[in-house]
Write a structure and sequence with these properties.
Number of helices: 3
Strand content: over 45%
Shape: globular
Radius of gyration: 33 Å
Strand order of the largest sheet: 1-32-31-30
Number of strands: 32
Helix content: under 10%
């Protein structure tokens, strides 16, 4: 067999190259290719529907049982009152005040002797005072700060976020308003005589201590008149006579409760109406809610407020009706309450707590019943936990962290 030898590779002439068909190359996709807009719209709609579904499921979810996650044994006096404060538990009675963690570990305590103790909190400050007494004690989350002693009985007391204290004192039909800083220095002092204005029955202090609100009752010829008086202690308020920037008079109306809530908006709870005020110099009225039925109880927190009244249903049965509003005065909840209760409140997470001591019912702001259970022990307080299904129960003999299921 003969071997092949490559001597020279044949080359194409120019004429042959021109006669050949061009080779087609595959076109690579460009880097900046974008999917159609319809795909983005579909993904956005899908995301919105998923969020709505999660919210709806959370609103309508109900739980009829619970599990104890942690428990801490506790020995307390039966007359103690409990509340949550800055992530811990505040307990007070006529013998003293205790600030503890949920597991019962003592942060600080202070002993006193009070016949009718009451407290007020704002920011990181607490005051404990004896109604009709002469002692007002100031505390922070770190413990005792100062004590204010008065020669005139204390009717009401309020504390601001920086520790400023406002006192309403009464003696011999004359009322006195005094304000102190946390060091005990007198800042404001005034008198209210019944022949001039009437008798103050309630007081509210703004969180920055620049605004003070009084509800004053006057009785002339058997007719009751309530007056709301707004004081302003800023430079603009000092330009007004006695620092009074606004007054509102309500004939035939009793206003036993007033309060400053979130962003220092004032709310007044009267016997037949609720008035919400704007947070401006003249405290203009933002909303008046007229209530035809008698209000059996009121409640509020920094985002909502409400009341319970009796109402007849179609078959003539009289039931309790719960009504909740936001701070714009818009109703968010109307719900019939068939069970008996001793307490209705808005918790810090804006859920509604209905309790008779042993049976606890928790509802959301949409009126759906989230949890209902009858406990063997008396429940003194229910405090929301870190998640929507966690709560702390202050019971007679223990504190329990529970999870709904």
């Amino acid at each position: 067999m003969e071997d092949f030898k490559i001597i020279k590779i044949p080359e194409q002439t120019e004429e042959e190259e021109q006669q050949q068909e061009p080779i087609l190359k595959r076109r690579e996709p460009e880097d900046d290719y974008t999917p159609p807009k319809k795909r983005y719209i579909f993904l956005i709609i899908l995301l919105i529907l998923s969020i709505v579904a999660v919210i709806v499921i959370k609103i309508i979810s109900t739980y009829d049982d619970y599990e104890e996650i942690k428990t801490w044994e506790r020995v307390d006096a039966g007359e103690s009152t409990y509340s949550s404060f800055q992530g811990n538990v505040l307990k007070y009675s006529g013998d003293g005040i205790f600030y503890t963690s949920y597991d019962g570990s003592l942060i600080w305590n202070y002993t006193y002797d009070m016949t009718n103790p009451a407290i007020d909190t704002c920011g990181s400050y607490i005051i404990a005072y004896d109604k009709k007494g002469s002692e007002v004690d100031i505390f922070s989350t770190k413990g005792f700060v100062n004590q204010i002693s008065t020669n005139i009985p204390v009717v009401d007391a309020r504390v601001a976020a920086q520790g400023t204290v406002a006192l309403l004192l009464q003696e011999n039909n004359t009322s006195y308003i005094q304000m102190y800083d946390k060091a005990g220095t007198l800042l404001v002092s005034g008198e209210i005589h019944p022949e001039n204005r009437g008798f103050p029955v309630s007081m509210a202090l703004s969180s920055d201590a620049t605004k003070l609100l009084l509800s004053i009752i006057n009785v002339n010829g058997g007719d009751i008149t309530s007056e709301l008086v707004f004081y302003d202690f800023t430079d603009k308020g000092k330009e007004e006579v006695d620092n009074i920037v606004a007054t509102y008079t309500y004939i035939g109306t009793l206003i036993p409760k007033i309060e400053f809530v979130s962003k220092d908006k004032a709310i007044a709870f009267a016997d037949k109406k609720i008035i919400v005020f704007n947070n401006n110099l003249r405290a203009t009225v933002a909303k008046e809610i007229n209530v035809s039925e008698e209000m059996k109880s009121i409640f509020y927190n920094d985002t909502h407020f409400g009341y319970v009244c009796e109402k007849a249903v179609e078959d003539g049965t009289v039931v309790n009706q719960l009504n909740v509003y936001n701070l714009y005065g818009l109703k968010t909840t109307t719900k019939e309450i068939t069970e008996s209760y001793t307490e209705i409140s808005l918790m810090d997470n804006s859920e509604i707590l209905i309790s008779d001591g042993n049976t606890i019912t928790i509802c959301n702001l949409q009126g759906f019943e989230k949890f209902k259970y009858t406990f063997d022990e008396k429940i003194y307080s229910v405090i929301p936990g870190v998640t929507s299904r966690r709560y702390y129960l202050i019971e007679e003999s223990k504190t329990a962290e529970i999870g709904l299921k």
